[in-house]
Amino acid sequence: MILIFPVRSIPHPDRPGKVKIPDAGIVQRGLSALGCKCKNDDPLYRETKESRLKSRALVLFAGSRADPIEVRLGAATIWVHPSLGFTKDQIRDNWSFGNGVTCGGISIQSGPLAGQVVPCAWIVVDDADGPAVLAKAAQIGQLFQVVV
Amino acid sequence: MGRGFSTAALTRAGSNTTEATTTSTTAVDLITVSSLSIPALSPIRIEYVGRKTSGAAAVVKCGLKINSTVVGEAVVGASARGYSASATDQAESGFAFIEIGPRLTSYVCGSHGMQKSAVTSSGAYALGSVLDDITGSAVFPTVAITDVVIRGISNSALVTLAVDELHVYVFGTP
Question: Where is A48: in which H helix or E strand?
């Protein structure tokens, strides 16, 4: 399950107009403190806008030039924080959410924000944990309001 | 024969200057420049900076997606397709650039690039490579470029990969 949250941004000290948003590693530690676990303990698993995918094998040796061969486990469940202004269907097709915490932006392909990259962050959790994680959405959202 | 010079040989077509970070251990769409309109025959240059945190002995790697085509997937074990850091448990930072030639029928792999990563605390060399496998996953689409996406992967949930200052330039055409 993918949960997408708004992020706080603050002015970046290096350049006028540049901003800083939360750091994924810090958020990951905060999630652990809340008792929430991402799927990034499984390096064979990722989720896209459309699918939950599992690689059949890890590519372990350098220079193999082989990409993972993935099988589709099923459809992805996506929860979008209502303040973000887009729906899951408006996300660019085949967008890869990976399996951990990511802070950045999502490219929007339709709707009022079409053509924009909307600053936000997302986490990927096991579908079975989804209801319990969603119950903590407000607390998780607070993690994305802290910018160091 | 006369020789002409242009003052607009390289034009910035777009950029994303907000740092993106991830702890994903599978490929994620990390940082994006969208709403581009770069003709298929125009050569381009993509550049960005990358870094990784300490936390575990794990590599981080970047890949490349053009529009909706993942041309070079971010794969831990694959050859370099973008910024990559060493497996040593240390904070590193570096730079990568990719140049892509005109994209037309039968000429769909024209690209090269380089990347380097160094120890953030000292500047000492950590990893560097020619990006010899940029189209290791798929060839370039022969249509106008609208989106440039840097994919990313960390080989440990304890190590954060970050990418910033993604700029896309277009070379002037004759």
Answer: strand A45-48
Task: Encode chain B (174 residues) as per-residue pLDDT tens digits.
Answer: 455 555 558 999 999 999 999 999 999 999 999 999 999 999 999 999 999 999 999 999 999 999 999 999 999 987 889 999 999 999 999 999 999 999 999 999 999 999 999 999 999 999 999 999 999 999 999 999 999 999 999 999 999 999 999 999 999 864
Query: Chain B residues with CB inside 8 Å of A70's CB?
Result: none
Spell out the domain ranges in chain B: 20-171
CA distance A135 to chain B (A): 23
R_g of chain B, CA atoms, integer Å? 16
Task: Name the minimum distance, in Å, from the CA of B28 to any CA of chain A.
Answer: 4
Residue A20: enclosing H or E segment and its boundaries?
strand A19-20
Nearest-by-Cβ selection for B68 from A24, A62, A93: A93
Measured between CB atoms, which of A18, A40, A105 is closest to B25?
A40
Residue B71 to residue B60: CA distance in whole angstroms? 18
